[in-house]
Each structure stands twice: as structure tokens, then as C-alpha cells.
């Protein structure tokens, strides 16, 4: 999967070499969970994301947007006796293919490669490092939409669907699932 991601990234870079480039920053909220047949009793955990992007215009409607984003993910588990949180911190690199309308709305989709920065299990005020229990990379596919105002500010929503198992042994069917909402600013306007 890493090879597919690198090929897509290379194709995007070559295809947009002469394109107009815009830069921007983004931040927002994550509503994260782990999904899959072995993700029993996992509940949504709220986190945040923040990062930067470059947007390459192929033409007026089609654009390619690679990003570099910190993303707080994971899940929580509640029962009567224990409040348990799994905190997974990733550095994500999505490469999004966007379709923009003249009115400011856009739709986007593309692959995302994530690098695990840390993994901690927290319960009753105690924290344990569990990074060795998780794979160092994660592959997902992003689907999103948004609106950009003429001044450069915008809003967006995105769902990152985990495609690879995140548990180190690969035996458990557990993947990331993250819904994101946020704000962004593109330098130089729309």
C-alpha cells in the first residue's frame, strides 16, 4: 500500500509541476473511533487535528492538495468500573483530489498515509505506553466536502476510512475511522 501511495504522490507532483500553487493552514475537531469486527465496545473519542497544505490547480475546477496533519485519534471504552481511553497520535499525509465549483463548494477524495507518533492507554489517571502494540503506519482513504469563501477562509468535513489493520500482529480486525470538521485558510484568497 505504501508503494501505491508513493506512486499517486509522484503522479500528482508531476501532473501539477506547472500548476498554480496555493498554501494554507487548517485545524479542527476529530471524532475518532476504531472500527472492524474486533472493535467491540469501542466508543467515539474527541480529539483535534492541525496542519498545513499546498493546493495545485490543474485547471479552474480540478486541484490536488497534499497535506501534512497532526491527528489525535483512538477510542474510549466505558464500563461500570473503568473509564479507558486509547490515544493514538498520527502524522497524516493525505493527497486529495478535489473538484471545485465556481460558488466555492468542493468535494475531495484521496489516499492517506499515517505515521504513528505515540500510543497510550489511559485509565484512572494512569497512562501506559502501548506503541509497540500498534503498527507504525496506517493507510486510509479520505472522503470530504467543504466551502471556501473568497477571502481564503473555509470550512470542511471529511471522513477517513481506515483500510489497514492497526494492531501490530495483524490478527485483530481493528482499523481507524475518523470524522473531521474544521476551518482552513488559504493564503492569497480563493
Description:
The protein is mainly beta and 190 residues long. Strands 1-2-3-4-5-7-8-9 form an eight-stranded antiparallel beta barrel. The longest helix is centred in the first third of the chain and has 14 residues.
The average pLDDT value, as a whole number, equals 90
| Overall 3D form | elongated
> What is the terminal separation in angstroms?
33 Å
Largest sheet: 8 strands, antiparallel, barrel
The proportion of strand residues reads: over 45%
Helix content: under 10%
Task: Looking at this protein, list some descriptive labels.
1 helix; eight-stranded antiparallel β-barrel; 190 residues; mainly beta
Question: Helix and strand layout, with pairings?
Answer:
Blueprint: H1 2-15, E1 20-35, E2 45-57, E3 62-78, E4 83-100, E5 105-123, E6 126-129, E7 137-148, E8 153-162, E9 175-186
Antiparallel strand pairs: 1-2, 1-9, 2-3, 3-4, 4-5, 5-6, 5-7, 7-8, 8-9
Question: How do you describe this structure in short?
Answer:
It contains one helix and nine strands, in the order αβββββββββ. The protein is mainly beta and 190 residues long.
Amino acid at each position: 500500500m505504501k508503494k501505491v501511495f508513493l506512486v499517486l504522490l509522484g503522479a500528482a507532483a508531476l501532473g501539477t509541476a506547472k500548476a498554480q500553487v496555493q498554501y494554507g493552514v487548517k485545524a479542527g475537531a476529530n471524532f475518532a473511533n476504531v472500527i472492524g469486527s474486533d472493535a467491540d465496545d469501542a466508543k467515539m473519542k474527541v480529539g483535534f487535528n492541525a496542519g498545513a497544505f499546498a493546493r495545485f490547480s490543474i485547471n479552474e475546477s480540478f486541484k490536488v492538495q497534499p497535506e501534512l496533519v497532526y491527528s489525535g485519534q483512538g477510542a474510549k471504552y466505558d464500563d461500570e468500573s473503568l473509564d479507558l481511553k486509547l490515544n493514538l497520535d498520527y502524522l497524516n499525509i493525505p493527497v486529495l483530489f478535489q473538484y471545485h465549483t465556481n460558488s466555492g463548494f468542493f468535494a475531495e477524495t484521496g489516499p492517506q498515509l499515517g505515521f504513528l507518533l505515540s500510543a497510550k492507554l489511559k485509565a484512572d489517571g494512569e497512562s501506559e505506553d502501548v506503541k509497540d502494540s500498534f503498527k507504525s503506519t496506517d493507510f486510509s482513504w479520505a472522503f470530504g466536502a467543504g466551502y471556501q469563501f473568497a477571502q481564503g477562509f473555509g470550512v470542511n468535513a471529511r471522513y477517513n476510512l481506515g483500510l489497514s489493520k492497526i494492531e501490530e500482529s495483524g490478527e485483530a480486525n481493528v482499523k481507524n475511522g475518523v470524522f473531521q470538521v474544521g476551518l482552513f485558510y488559504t493564503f492569497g484568497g480563493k
